[in-house]
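In the laboratory, one determines a bound structure by crystallizing the protein with its ligand and collecting diffraction data. In a computational setting the workflow is compressed into a single prediction: the sequence and the ligand go in, and a structural description comes out. We illustrate the idea with zinc ion.
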Amino acid sequence: RRLAVVPQGGNTGLVGGSVPLFDEVIVSMSRMNSIISLDPLAGIVTCEAGVVLERLNEYLEERDFVMPLDLGAKGSCHVGGNAATNAGGIRFLRYGSLHGSILGLEAVLADGTVLDSLSSLRKDNTGYDVKQLFIGSEGTLGIITKLAILVPRKPKAVHVAFFGLSSYEKCLATLVRARSELSEVLSAVEFLDRSSLELVTRHLPGARDPLAASYPFYVLIETSGSDAEHDNEKLNRFLESVMTPSSGAGDAPGGEALVQDGTLAQDRTQMKALWKLREGIAEALMKNGVVYKYDISLPTDKMYDFVEDMQRRLGQRALVVGYGHLGDGNLHLNVSVPQHSTEVHGLIEPYLFERVHAHKGSVSAEHGMGQCKVKYLHFSKSPEAIGVMQRIKNLFDPHGILNPYKVLPARSAPT
Ligand code: 2HG
Ligand code: ZN
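The predicted complex, in structure-token form:
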């Protein structure tokens, strides 16, 4: 009947991708929630799109596997939505993008055709990899209904350390050290600034600063490996190296140690508490008032300049915080105000995206385009690339009924 539809998973997106604008019908995926099978030999799980990420992860952990994806919204988001939005999250550094982990999928096209690309082969080099188009298409090319996902073995030993640092440069140097000294066991490197930590400790019950003094920056490092003794040894050597004052040689700025203070979680509860300080920032910001959210990819050494520049630009009008996936060059720049302010919003956009473009960054590192970023697509994609995207959209959805007004700017009618 050519009715416009909006596919909706857990509705946890941050760019309005699963929210209708006009009279679109919401297609909720929540009852397509079966886990179909797990092939333990190949490490491939097959499930329906509406399975909640945390539930799938629990199912896998019981069988000694783990999802290659983890994010703050795990308790509500659906794996179909994760695939449709190409969600990034905190395991990206270790397991990479869903473009690599999703081996196959089933999708329903605009005309009702069920496209079976549910291959569960590690290798399949038979021409165009059509399923990739659906990953990150945000429901604009078809509705993902099933997935086959490559799942790694559950790590036997996980450690989490939380550091206080005196400058962003030291966060970068700590990242470099972690990469070289923790190498294959390194599974996450996240950072947050002091304002982010203060928001979490103020708004989330039970959250407390684990360090004795305050620092302008914090880095959370996680290791995951198969041999607790080996990982422990590596981590202890790393801790010693980042906490010992340097001679000024190598990657460390001279004199002071890279890390001023730090704590290592002793058990699962402490590990969760440290992760909460990073994963709880989004929730704490929501409790603090109205928030303008930005999720940008930048050269890692430039990331915090963007936060400081925005702080200077907005002055007393707003609180600007910076945190994110340091190891992936993905900054979450958020601006908190007591109530919506057209003035503040106008000072942020399009200024921020113009700067991102000037630094060859991306206007969306992991949250997608949804409805909020559509008009800024051209800052990250060339006219030729947008033209190809439009042609693909026309091919899959000639009547524009799949999640309209999302991802791509309005187009002319198909010829
Ligand atoms: C995170 O990494 C999420 O915590 C949310 O991607 C980021 O709130 C945000 O802007
Ligand atoms: Zn994130």
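Residues 14, 72, 279, 281-282, 293, 295, 332, 334 surround (2R)-2-hydroxypentanedioic acid (ligand 1) (CB under 6 Å). Keep in mind that any predicted model is a hypothesis to be tested, not a measurement.
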